Amino acid sequence: MMTERRGISAAGVAAVASVCAIALATLPVGSSALSHRGGRAAPVLSGPLRSASRKAKLLTKPASTMRLRGGGVIVEADPVNKFVDASKLEYKDWYQKPDAKWEERDGCGVVQWDPSLEAWKGSLQHRYNKYRDLKKHICTVEGSLENFAKGTEKFGVRRSTDPAKPGIVATEWAPAAQRMALMGDFNGWDRGKHSYTKDDYGIWHLFIPDNADGTSVIPHEGRYKIAITTSTGQETTRIPAWVTYTVQAPKGAPTHPGYDAVFWNPPEKFVFKSALPEQPKSLRIYEAHVGMSSEGEPCVNTYDLFRELVLPRIHRLGYNAIQLMAIQEHPYYASFGYHVTSLFAPSSRSGDPDSCKRLVDECHRLGMNVLLDVVHSHAAKNVEDGINDFDGTSHHYFHEGPEGYHTLWDSRIYNYSSWEVLRFLLSNLRWWLEEYKFDGFRFDGVTSILYKHHGMNHAFVHGYDDYFGTATDMDACVYLMLANDLIHSLRPGCLSIAEDVSGMPTLSRPVSEGGFGFDYRLAMAAPDMWIKLLKEMTDDEWEMGYIVHTLTNRRYKEKVVCYCESHDQALVGDKTISFRLMDKEMYDGMSNLTPANLIVDRGIALHKMIRMLTMSLGGEGYLNFMGNEFGHPEWIDFPRVGNDWSYHCARRQWSLADQTHLRYIHLNNFDSAMHGLEQTFPFLVEDCHEYVSLKNEGDKVIVAEKGELLFVYNLHPSNSYQGYRVGCTAGGRYKTVLDSDWPEFGGHNRNDRHQVLDAKNEQWCGRPHYLEIYSPSRTVMVFAKCRPLPAAPAAAAAPAK
C-alpha cells in the first residue's frame, strides 16, 4: 500500500480519501468501484457529492463514475455564483422565519414538544410577555426592531450621508462625561480643537465639514481618539465604542503602546462577488483561528494567507461551514479572542477590514457558510482601549457593583436591561451580517448570559427549578430572544448556535413558540465524556450504554451540534484526543516506514472511531477544531510571560497531514471520508431516522441505524467477531461504504472492500432482518443497501408498413 499512496500527491490524497470511502455505495451491484493500478486510485469521484440528482445518477449508471488521477484538486468558481443581497433571498422550508403574529403568542408553543413544561407555563408566559412588551416598545419608539439595530448609521465616526452636508459625523453615548473632543493625526492630536456637544439623552454629537477642496478632514487610515473628561473630572482618552477598525499605535506615537482608532474609508468600497450560501440541512463546521493558523516561522497569520493556504484544505475535507474565532478586536492575544474591546472591529493583527471581507467572500465562492464566534456574554475590563468606565462610571455599558463583574473571567458583564446597550449589541449583530456578510453566529458563553450566577458553582442537577427560578436573568433571556428574532428577519437562512453547558430547555426552539430562537445548541457533554473515558478508564472498562446515552441524550426537537473536541481541549494544560491516545508517540511513532507500535495502532484506531461515533450519534451537526482532523501533535499556547512570549505553539503544522510517510495522513483521510459519506447519505439532517439496536457490553459492540446507513462499532481492544449478527431494517443486499480498517486510513484491511452481503429475513435485536459480518476489533464499518440498476426500456414497436 505504501507504493500506491506515494502515487498520489499530498494535495490530492485528502480528496481521494473522501471519495474512495463512498465509491462502493454509489455504484450498482456488479460494477467495479476501485482499482489500484500503477499506484493510482482509479475510478473514484472527482469531488464531494452535492446534489440528490448527481447521487441518483451515480447509483444507477456505472459509466457516470469519474477518475481522479494524481495531482491536486482544482477548486473552480461557479460562473453563476454571483452576489445577491440578503433582502432578495428566499426563506427555505428548513429556515427559521419571521413571525408575523408575534403579538398574539403566549410563549407556550414549546410545551407540545416537552409536556413536562406544562408545570412551567407561567414562567414561559412571563418570559415571552417581557419579550413582547419590549419589542412593542422598540417598535413604537424606533419604528421596528430592524431600525433599532441600525446603530452604526448613527453612532461612531463616519462619513455624512447627507449630500448637502459633506463631512465627518461623530456620535457617542456617554451620559456621565463632562466633555468630549475628537483628536488625531488630522489635527495634531489637539484635545480642544474639535469638541462634541451633548444632548438631553446623554448622546454627544460632532460635525466636521470637508476641506475647501472637498477632501475629508480625516483621511482614509487616519488615526484618531476621543479626548474625554470623565464624570470624575479625569482628562484621558478613549477609543469610540462603535469604532470599526483599531490598530496598536506605532512606537513613537503619543498613544503608544495603546490602540488607536483608524478611519477606514477606502477610495473604492469593497464589492462582494460571490452569492450568499444556502443554510445547509446537514451542518459540518470547521472551527478555525486565523491568527494561529500559520506554518513555518511562528507568527500571527493573516486573513489573506488563511484564504490562500488554509481555506482550500478545509474545503477539500468537505466541511460546509467555517466558524471563525477571535475576529472581534482583542488587545490580549492569549485571551483566544474572548476579551473583546471593540465589538465592531475585525482583529487588526490579521489584516485590515477588506482582507477580512475577502476571506468571507472566498468562503462563499466555495459554497461555505461563515459563522462569527460572537462575544456578547462579557467584555474586557480594559479602559483606554475598551468600553469599561467609558464615561467615568462603572455602570455605563455594564451592571453596577459585583453584578457587573465576572470573577472567573476577570471581565465585565453587560446590562441587558439598558436601552442603549441593547441597541449596541443588536446593531453589532446586524453590522457583521451586512457589512461583512457573515452567515450567522456562534454565541459564546450563553450560560453566563442566562443566569445571574453565570453558571459558576452550579451543576444544574435539580431539574427545571434550575432554569425557571430567580437565578435566571430575565432581561438577558429577552436579549437573546430579540437577537435571534433580529438576525432571522434580516437574513434568510441565518444560523445561530448557543454555547450553553446548563441544558436550558427551549434554547433552540423558535421565539414564536416561546423558545430562545437558536438554530442549534452545542452538545457540550460529549467532549467531557471522551476525556473521562480516555483519562480515567482502560478500554475494557468503557460502557457502550454510557457512550450511547451521552451522545443521544438531547432534547426532542432541539437541534444539536456535537463534537469530540474543540479549542478548549487543545489549550495548554489540557490534551487533545490524539495526545491522550498516543502522547509522546506522536513525535516518535508516526512513521509509515516501520510497522506501527501498539500505542500508535490503538491511538489511530480509536481516534477514527471516536470521531465517527460523535458525528453519527451526536446530533444534527458536527464540529471539529483546526488541526484535530489529523491529530495535530501540539497543544495551543499563545505568547505570554510564562513562555517568554513565544509563538512556537500558536501555529498549525499542516504539512504533517501532507506527508505520505507519516500516519497523520491516515487520520486526515478518514476525516475527509466522513464528510464524503455524510454528503452522499445525509444523516445529520433534522428528523433523520435513528435507532440503536445493540449496546453489547461484553462484546463492546454498538450497532446503530442513522438515515440510510447501518453503523457497526467494535470497540473491543482485542476481539474480532466472525459471523457476527447485526440487525437491520431493510432486507436485500448491502455493501460496505466506509471501513476505518481500510489501508488509506491506517487500517489493516481485514475485510474485502468489495463484498456484497445478503440480509437474512429473520428478526434480530428487534429488527426484521440481519446481516452476518466479520467485525474486526477497534473498527467502525458502515453499510448501505444496494440499489438495482433500472430496467432497460422496452424496444419501440416497428412502424406498420
The Cα radius of gyration reads: 28 Å
Distance N terminus to C terminus?
63 Å
Question: How large a portion of the residues is in β-strands, by DSSP E?
Answer: 15-25%
Proportion in helices: 10-25%
Strand order of the largest sheet: 12-13-16-20-21-22-23-24
- How many strands? 32
Low-confidence stretches: 1-77
Total helical segments: 17
Shape: globular
Task: Describe the largest sheet.
Answer: 8 strands, parallel, barrel
What structural category do the secondary elements indicate? Answer: alpha+beta
Average predicted local confidence, pLDDT: 88
Task: Give a brief outline of the structure.
With 801 residues, the chain is α+β, with helices and mostly antiparallel strands.
Describe the structure.
The protein is an alpha+beta fold and 801 residues long. It has 17 helices and 32 strands. The chain has an eight-stranded parallel β-barrel, surrounded by four helices. A six-stranded antiparallel sheet has the order 25-26-27-32-29-30. Strands 5, 8, 9, 10 and 11 form a five-stranded antiparallel sheet that branches. It is globular. The N terminus is likely disordered.
